[in-house]
Design goal:
The complex is a heterodimer of chains A (about 325) and B (about 350). Chain A has about 325 residues and is an alpha+beta fold. Chain A has helices at about 1-10, 20-30, 130-135, 160-175, 200-210, 255-265, 280-285, 315-330; strands spanning about 35-40, 45-50, 55-60, 65-70, 80-85, 95-100, 105-110, 120-125, 145, 150-155, 155-160, 185-190, 215-220, 240-245, 270-275, 295-300, 310. Chain B has about 350 residues and is an alpha+beta fold. Chain B has two domains: about 1-65 and about 170-340, Aminopeptidase (3-Layer(aba) Sandwich), CATH 3.40.630; about 65-155, Elongation Factor Tu (Ef-tu), domain 3 (Beta Barrel). In chain B, strands 1, 2, 3, 10, 11, 12, 13, 14, 15, 16 and 17 form an eleven-stranded mixed beta sheet that branches. A six-stranded antiparallel beta sheet of chain B has the order 5-4-9-6-7-8. The chains are: A alpha+beta (about 325), B alpha+beta (about 350).
């Protein structure tokens, strides 16, 4: 499990530039002898189970937050904009890498007034002496992600992009453990794009697959750290969460009730989740066409949107168990 | 001059009838059939001259502009207003406006500077301290000329000097002018052109237009922020007037489809035309609504740089606009020749 998550987290795949992470996931799917297709925006879709019954869309976004180069200065420094929710406090001194392997360090202009001066006060240093040498490595529109390899401490993993490569791992592992014969209907396992910039991939794949039910698999915030920013009971290590609400969706009671019933019946620990700020693909899916009853299963995660996000391996295992039992269940 | 003509016509978001009618006349003069939908988007299905496959290309430009709307009428006969779209508030004071279908003339007024207290003078004035003065004696008198809900558009005479064009609503009448220019030419492949409504209040027209047209790919013709002005550092200027049309890599609503963006660059390079990248990663365009339409659409944006947009008077360089038209022309032809894998 750790190896899979490590591989996924190490891959490059900011919103809108998911080519590399998609290729890594596609290779895993080929190993499982499953077929897949890729849609216009780049969502990767695996269909499994017998057609004719209820269709379920299970979405985990494969994109991560990142930076995009907007300007290259005479002196070789790069200016950038954000792809998704970049936290300014985490930027100075952080290393990033580009798709071609170029590594840069984020620097900050002199600033005494505020902790969050705006992204225009930061720059990226790729060791270029001038514009020409910079342009030999990087061009405007190129994107970069944090350089922060995975590390394990007991049951805890830290790495960049656990949001949401851990969700991708849950989907891949569920795919490998489930046999098509145990599924009551058709399941679309989708690795979505551009979640971090506004749930865009989920919106188009929900339209295309036209499911009866939707389920997002993502990470969620926890309240088990000193003076947490968010008041929530969700803790690391106490099981995956069954989302009740976030800023983008109020989960359909049929789906949340079913998830909780399945968890209890199978003795899988879970935590109810109310996320006051933040959204997942469920927000886009439930509004597709004439409305789709949608829920979400989340893996608790600390330090979301920093270079060192943290999850607990037990939560991941229990998440896989819950997703597996849920998809096998006949009560949809 | 087409941009100048388009600039002069009122067309605040939701009140696009006059600008739409003007564009329809231009289309009719060129023998181009067109139709509108429930929201007021204007569509042209441009037939290609070749026999190749229809590439599923949509081009669009929003025809609405930012402005104001009458929200209430004071006993004194002065009008209070809402903003429609992202109007730059500090630019409002002492500006002439046209109100309602009859173009009632008004001036945006505020408390005389002589009467303002020292603290008041330091603050930028917003809609709460401003009003529109139509010279009415009282509420009854004002109601004879205007009513609540009337649209208010800026009244700025458009003018040209050398390559510079000045006028209101250049965002996005420059895009409309470019689309009209493109529609007057012959292309080997077919495409659909849409003049969209309500972009400035939340990219609404483009959303339904993309649903209706159901394209594979779309290029949005826009007008974007140029901030090559005093006190702004190079990397914060967004775009520079005269450096060529700007390609968007990413804004708050869309990440340009990489292969579509690549193609735009190839076309500009082949034509040896100047181009630049929009350095600001924020704000919204029709491309955001188009890219997430139905099962997903490959979308990109090309813009004419323009100073002082969302104010009563903006300024662009005609050379940038001209290059934009030719790059769009070359883009359409390259789609016909080579297709575009999306």
């Amino acid at each position: 499990m750790k190896e899979l998550i490590q591989k996924l987290c190490a891959s490059f795949g900011p919103a809108g530039r998911e080519g590399q992470i998609r290729a890594v996931i596609a290779a895993e799917i080929e190993k499982l002898k499953e077929e897949y297709f890729v849609d216009t925006l780049g969502n990767l879709v695996v269909r499994k189970g017998p057609a004719g019954g209820k269709k379920i869309l299970v979405a985990a976004h494969m994109d991560e937050i990142g930076l995009m180069v907007t300007y290259i200065e005479e002196n070789g420094y790069l200016r950038f904009t954000n792809l998704g929710g970049i936290m300014q406090q985490t930027l100075p001194g952080t290393r990033v890498f580009f798709e071609n392997g170029t590594v840069g360090v984020i620097g900050q202009e002199k600033n005494k007034e505020t902790r969050e001066p705006g992204l225009s006060k930061y720059y990226l240093d790729i060791g270029a002496e001038n514009r020409e040498t910079a342009l030999a490595k990087v061009k405007i529109g190129d994107a970069a992600v944090y350089l922060a390899p995975l590390h394990q401490e007991g049951k805890r993993l830290t790495a960049k992009s656990l949001d949401n490569r851990v969700g991708c791992a849950v989907l891949l592992e569920t795919l490998s453990r489930l046999s098509a014969a145990t599924l009551p209907g058709e399941v679309f396992f989708v690795f979505t794009v551009q979640e971090e910039v506004g749930l865009r991939g989920a919106q188009t794949i929900a339209y295309r697959t036209k499911p009866h039910y939707g389920l997002a698999v993502d990470v969620t915030r926890v309240g088990d750290t000193p003076e947490p920013e968010f008041k929530t009971n969700v803790s690391l290590g106490k099981g995956p969460t069954v989302k009740v609400m976030d800023s983008a969706v109020i989960c359909h009671p049929k789906v949340t009730n079913l998830m909780m019933d399945v968890a209890e019946k199978n003795n899988i620990p879970y935590q109810p989740e109310v996320l006051e700020r933040g959204g997942t693909d469920a927000g886009a899916i439930h509004l597709s066409r004439d409305g789709i009853p949608t829920g979400a299963l989340s893996i608790p995660c600390r330090y979301i949107h920093t270079p060192a996000e943290m999850v607990d391996l037990d939560d991941v295992e229990n998440g896989i168990a819950l997703l597996q039992e849920l998809l096998k269940c006949e009560q949809w | 001059m087409l941009i100048k003509e388009l600039s002069a016509i009122p067309g605040v978001s939701g009140d696009e009838t006059r600008i739409r009618n003007f564009i329809r006349e231009k289309l009719a003069a060129r023998g181009l059939k067109n139709y509108t939908d429930a929201l007021g988007n204007l569509y042209v299905s441009k037939e290609g001259r070749g026999k190749g496959e229809d590439p599923g290309l949509m081009l669009c430009a929003h025809m609405d502009e930012v402005g104001l709307m009458v929200s209430s009428i004071e006993k004194s006969g002065h009008l209070r207003f809402y903003k429609v779209g992202g109007v730059y508030e500090p630019a409002l004071i002492s500006k002439p406006v046209k109100i309602g279908p009859d173009d009632v003339y008004g001036v945006i007024g505020a408390k005389a500077i002589h009467l303002q207290k020292a603290e008041e003078r330091k603050k930028a004035l917003g809609p709460e301290n401003l009003y529109i003065d139509i010279g009415a004696k009282n509420k009854d008198d004002a109601e004879k000329a205007v009513k609540i809900g009337d649209y208010v558009s800026f009244y700025s005479e458009a003018s040209c000097y050398k390559n510079l064009v000045r006028g209101k609503a250049l965002d996005n009448r420059a895009g409309c002018a470019a689309l009209l220019e493109i529609l007057q030419r012959d292309f080997p492949c077919s495409f659909t052109a849409v003049f969209t409504v309500q972009e400035e209040v939340g990219i609404r027209g483009a959303r339904v237009a993309a649903y209706r047209v159901n394209p594979r790919m779309a290029l949005v013709l826009e007008t974007t922020i140029a901030a090559d002005t005093p006190g702004i550092k190079e990397y914060e200027q967004s775009t520079v007037l005269g450096d060529g049309p700007a390609f968007t890599v990413k804004d708050d609503s869309v990440i340009a489809h990489p292969r579509l963006l690549e193609r735009l660059i190839q076309v500009a390079e082949k034509q040896q035309r100047p181009y630049q990248f929009r350095r600001y990663g924020g704000s919204f365009t029709d491309a955001g609504a188009v890219t997430t339409s139905r099962g997903g659409v490959a979308a990109g944006v090309i813009s004419t740089p323009c100073r002082y947009i969302h104010s009563p008077l903006s300024m662009l360089n005609q050379k940038d606009w001209h290059h934009l038209v030719e790059i769009v022309d070359g883009f359409i032809r390259s789609i016909d020749e080579k297709g575009l894998e999306v």
